[in-house]
Automatic annotation (TrEMBL):
Gene3D superfamilies: Immunoglobulins, Transglutaminase-like. This is Annulin. Belongs to the transglutaminase superfamily. Transglutaminase family. It comes from Apis cerana cerana (Oriental honeybee). Signal peptide: none annotated. InterPro entries: Ig-like_fold (IPR013783), Ig_E-set (IPR014756), Papain-like_cys_pep_sf (IPR038765), Transglutaminase (IPR050779), Transglutaminase-like (IPR002931), Transglutaminase-like_sf (IPR036985), Transglutaminase_AS (IPR013808), Transglutaminase_N (IPR001102).
Length: 360
């Protein structure tokens, strides 16, 4: 389908969609997505960001009044970029527009919320396990008696992200205070130093800023190469993203450097947040120099929160590194009490990582 309308039968008065209003302000407030930069752009530059498993609304301008006895309307959703959208993979969803109280067999639901002259307000409910990413939507209208049909394609895709406020979503969180910390907080503290001399660092996550959501999707799809049918699964996505932020894994976002030579890049201690790192990476598609454990953790937290995946950064000052699968940290000495370095591979070190919610 192409942008706009395609008529199959010009001789019948088929209902035509003239324009679609994505109700940016209303949907942003109800879905807690109004802070995304894509939602704040002026005019036609704005893009709708909504959470799965929760209803959102569209306003349709019509060529004439809608008549339920004559007109049929259905919606077709496809994952943006899918070469061959399929029902079985969850990349293609078709659902009729019904009245409240009715229900289709589709995984997504669509209802007429209100009717006015030449106007229709739609309520759309995506599945709580829908694929995360950008979706395109076509609106098909037909005359029930003549089968004449018209298809309208929305010009721009909309973003669908995880929903910790939806009980049916695998990332659901019961406590609102935790949701604010794990998903909505745009800054926080990352603890560095040692257990006897802890040192806090303020980190700006900036998950709603320009290009961050698109960068998160790029890391998930192009770098992490999450297969399209698994892009609904928070466990798969979290595991892939944890590798994708590290440059040795398929040209990821940040290059690690634990030496004292930071030539050609920025010393890890100079970073104050994720925004500049991810914006630079998204622009160049090359790993940003340089990062260490807290930088990787802060960047990963930003990416996850941008996708609606709850997480926070946790510092463990005494992380045991067992290299022999003995479930103990072993230290070998000889009969004279001298360390046997050839056997001493276990260690205890500081570890800073991201912690996500339980899924499922």
């Amino acid at each position: 389908m192409t942008d706009g309308m395609k008529r199959e039968d010009f001789s019948v008065p088929v209902l035509t969609i003239l324009d679609v209003d994505p109700c940016i302000g209303e949907n942003g407030a109800k879905h807690r997505t109004s802070r995304y930069e894509a939602m704040t752009r002026r005019g036609d530059g704005s893009r709708l960001v909504v959470r799965r498993g929760q209803e959102f609304y569209l306003h349709l301008a019509l060529s004439r009044d809608y008549d339920p006895n004559t007109d049929g309307i259905s919606l077709v959703f496809t994952v943006d970029g899918a070469e061959r959208p399929q029902y079985g993979h969850g990349t293609l969803v078709a659902t009729p527009v019904l009245y409240p109280g009715q229900r289709s067999e589709a995984s997504w639901q669509a209802y007429i919320d209100s009717l006015h002259s030449d106007f229709l307000r739609l309520k759309i409910v995506p599945a709580p396990d829908a694929i995360i990413g950008k979706w395109r939507m076509d609106i098909d209208t037909k005359n029930k008696s003549t089968d004449g049909a018209v298809s309208y394609t929305m010009k721009n895709p909309f973003y669908l992200v995880f929903n910790p406020w939806c009980r049916e979503d695998a990332v659901y969180m019961e406590d609102e205070e935790e949701r604010q910390e794990y998903v909505m907080a745009e800054d926080g503290l990352i603890w560095r130093g040692s257990y006897n001399r802890p040192r806090r660092t303020v980190w700006k996550y900036s998950q709603f800023e320009r290009d961050i959501l698109d960068c998160a999707l790029h890391l998930m799809i192009e770098v992490g190469r999450v297969r399209i049918s698994a892009r609904h699964d928070p466990v798969v996505i979290a595991r892939v993203l944890s590798a994708a932020v590290n440059s040795p894994d398929d040209n990821g976002a940040v290059m690690g450097n634990w030496s004292n030579d930071f030539g050609g890049g920025t010393p890890p201690t100079k970073w104050l947040g994720s925004q500049k790192i991810l914006q630079q990476y998204y622009k160049t598609r090359k790993p940003v120099k340089y990062g260490q454990c807290w930088v990787f953790s802060g960047v990963l937290a930003t990416i996850c929160r941008a996708l609606g995946l709850p997480c926070r950064v946790v510092t463990n000052y005494a992380s045991a590194h067992d290299t022999q699968s003995s479930l103990t940290v072993d230290y070998f000495v000889d009969a004279e009490g001298k360390a046997m370095e050839e056997l001493n591979s276990d260690s205890i070190w500081r570890n800073i990582s991201t912690r996500g919610t339980r899924c499922g």
